[in-house]
Write a structure and sequence with these properties.
The complex is a heterodimer of chains A (265) and B (221). Chain A is 70% helix and 0% strand. Chain A has 265 residues and is an all-alpha fold. Chain A is globular, with a radius of gyration of 20 Å. Classes of the chains: A mainly alpha (265), B alpha/beta (221). The interface between A and B is medium-sized, with 24 and 31 residues.
Chain lengths: 265, 221
């Protein structure tokens, strides 16, 4: 080991970590979805059914106050919610069921989180993509204005969700109170997340407040990508990048703290 | 070679910290067989986890220049909701071994029959231990770590394990921790006694045993 140069050592570490995360990913898919019936396809069928249900219900209620096509508005909103909710939610109890795997040197606490996060992000992305394609092909919504912008928004939201997942996961591992509190907070946060409104609809005073919330910037950017000149989107990518970078550092420190505690048990 | 230098391990407890290991030095070469004797709670398992790398020392340095197993004889390095086959597949992926090559060996050795394809949580403790042992023999290591001696299954299976580990893999290094001296006397060429967070080394297993026994007796009322 000591004979290797630092760069080679980092590379070797990366190879091992990729191997471990891949193994955990496969394991996670099997334990969660099993090998029977449609198996791992549940990972995107489930959110897809959920989003479809919401679209149907909202179309029936038919709120005329929105001068935008309802279907794409709902899909972009709920897809975003599913991304951050599922990613963060799955981190709450990532260590306990996998504790026995920590007997293996190469399996580290952060790998347990990373595997789950990758799976959730992949699931939410596939479901968003599939649903959009199906609905567009069926003629219920128009093709997006700027796909790259939507992709960018999605990546920024995924980054944010993964960091939050690590932070909440680490906090939940240290205290059960925090784990329970998170469920409450995530419900309360739902209407504030930007999924159900455009910043432009809010009074000026509330707009500034809303733009403190990172996920609002993501949904605005996502919808700017979809609707283009039909809406006036408010967002600041610089703000998102700054928040995500800060949060990444906090997340890594939090996971390090938890690893030190957990690996000694 | 495996080298431990000035290993200290502290755990946080309710009021302050508890020092389990207090400056451990140990070196072992390829093929060395070391037994570590210690009473319950002396820190044997902690030491073996530190050597395996599953846990990191509070201070000090562990250098590994050969491949080291996970602490064997534990059925709990597995996932209960996965089947035996899936657990093997997982272990192979982690350690970069080829699943297809190891499967026949594990199936043959563990003698679990169709239970190989049932979730591990449906196993009896004996079955679980058999699977654990078979999987740990399927991945080749230069050094095996044994936390308490494997008392796996019936005497026939026990003999099989003994042959596989101690005879076929005689060239490998071995670190065994136990609170019973006879296992160590049987399989190790060097012995240490772990007491009060420190490791005393003896070239002679009997000397170590005498020391351990004396210490054990002086502690009893």
């Amino acid at each position: 080991m000591s004979a290797l140069s630092p760069t080679r050592e980092v590379l070797r570490g990366l190879v091992i970590q990729t191997r471990v995360v891949r193994a955990l990913l496969m394991r996670e898919i099997i334990t969660r979805y099993g090998r029977h019936n449609i198996g791992f396809m549940w990972i995107f069928v489930e959110p897809m059914l959920f989003t479809s249900g919401v679209v149907v219900v909202r179309s029936l209620l038919n709120s005329h106050s929105i001068h935008l096509p309802l279907v794409p508005f709902t899909i972009t909103g709920y897809a975003s919610v599913l991304l951050w909710r599922n990613a963060i939610g799955r981190c709450g109890n990532a260590i306990e069921p996998n504790r026995s795997l920590l007997h293996h040197r190469n399996v580290r606490v952060i790998d347990l989180y990373v595997a789950r996060l990758l799976l959730e992000v992949a699931g939410a992305s596939i479901s968003f993509l599939t649903l959009s394609i199906v609905v567009t092909a069926a003629g219920f919504m128009a093709a997006p204005d700027d796909i790259l912008k939507m992709l960018w928004a999605w990546l920024l939201l995924a980054w944010f969700s993964m960091c939050m997942g690590l932070v909440i996961g680490a906090l939940a591992a240290t205290s059960e109170t925090i784990e329970r509190m998170w469920h409450v907070v995530s419900y309360l946060f739902l209407p504030l997340s930007g999924a159900f409104f455009l910043v432009d609809w809010l009074p000026k005073r509330l707009q500034d407040a809303a733009l403190l919330i990172p996920t609002v910037h993501c949904t605005e950017l996502l919808r700017d990508g979809y609707f283009g000149r039909h809406i006036h989107a408010h967002y600041d990518v610089g703000y998102l990048l700054a928040v995500n970078t800060m949060l990444s550092l906090v997340a890594l420190v939090a996971v390090k703290k938890v690893s030190d505690r957990v690996e000694g048990e | 070679m495996i080298r431990l230098e000035q290993i200290v391990k502290r755990y946080r407890v309710r009021n302050g910290t508890h020092r389990v290991l207090d400056g451990i030095d140990l070196e072992l070469q390829r093929g060395d067989k070391i037994g570590i004797l210690g009473r319950n709670g002396a820190g044997k398992s902690t030491l073996i986890r530190l050597i395996s790398g599953a846990e990191l020392p509070t201070s000090g340095r562990v250098t590994r220049q050969m491949s080291v197993s996970w602490p064997l004889a534990f059925g709990d390095a597995f996932q209960g909701s996965l089947t035996g086959v899936d657990n093997l597949r997982f272990i192979c992926r982690i350690y970069g071994a080829e699943f297809k090559k190891t499967l026949p060996f594990v199936e043959d050795f563990a003698e679990l029959g169709k239970y190989m394809r049932e979730p591990v949580k449906a196993y009896s403790s004996g079955m679980r231990a058999r699977l654990a042992f078979a999987i740990s023999m399927a991945i080749e290591f230069d050094c095996f770590l044994i936390d308490e001696v494997i008392a796996v299954g019936d005497s026939r299976f026990h003999d099989k394990c003994r042959r596989e580990l101690f005879e076929k893999r005689q060239d490998r290094a071995l670190i065994m921790v136990s609170h019973e001296a006879h296992n160590i006397r049987e399989h190790c060429s060097r012995a240490c006694v772990l007491r009060d967070g420190r490791l005393g080394e003896f070239t002679d297993v009997d000397a170590a045993y005498a020391e351990y026994n004396g210490a054990a007796m002086s502690h009893s009322p």
